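Exercise 3.2. Students should predict the tertiary structure of the chain below and write it as structure tokens, then compare their answer with the key that follows.

Predict this chain's 3D structure.
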Amino acid sequence: MSALATQVAARAAMLAAAGREGSARVIVVIQRKGGSGKSTLTVNLAAVSGESHPAPDPEGDAPVIALGIDPQGSMEQWARRVAAELLPFDYVVTKGRLGTLPELVRDPNVKRIWVDTPGFVDTDPDADSDADPLGDGRAADAMREALEHADLALVPITTEFLSKEPAEYTIEYVLKPRKIPFMVVINMWDAGADGKTHADLKKAEEWCIERGYPYAPRAVRKYKIHSNAAEKGETVIHYKEQGVGAKARNDIYSLALAVEQVL
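Answer key:
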């Protein structure tokens, strides 16, 4: 068992000892900075997860949930454009309302809950170093509730310099104090043919290694097919299994597998 898998198992045991019912595993996609692709990862990972955990009854509720806690409800705009018969997961948008996630966790039929967090995590710049930096307000309370039930956090970063400090803040001041296991996901990597883009990827990997942060073994490359999927009402499982579609699929499927291996 890997070190991260051991941490996830310990976290699950702690949540069970605290009285959490049900077999659901909660994966929170979180990053203090916006623009790191949180919603795209959440929807596509939920789709792959739903494909792997089909509903026993085709007419019944799906055992995989994509939960959007962003008060803007942006995830809903994407999910509702996908034809119901093509969506292998159920989606719930709380817009910051509390209580929905604990109910889903208690449902014995729910296996995976993928939580899409607000595009920008509002933090209190005046908070003491040992205090909760999430501040006050509806979004902050919804974030606390999600983190309270989290088995694993995915922290996406891009290869750009400005993505890393907010990710480090998220890990050091939001996740670690709560003892939430996490995995960094190098996302939206522009995998051009020139050596510079590969050097950027190596630099992002070294950034994780220097800090002792576990990271997904495969970066998720930046493809227009991802950015167009919401408008077209598609998820990664609907991409063509050839050309760019196949490459884009492979990245997300590889990430989904890496998550399942630690859950």
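Discussion points: The chain has one domain: 3-262. The two ends are 11 Å apart (CA to CA).
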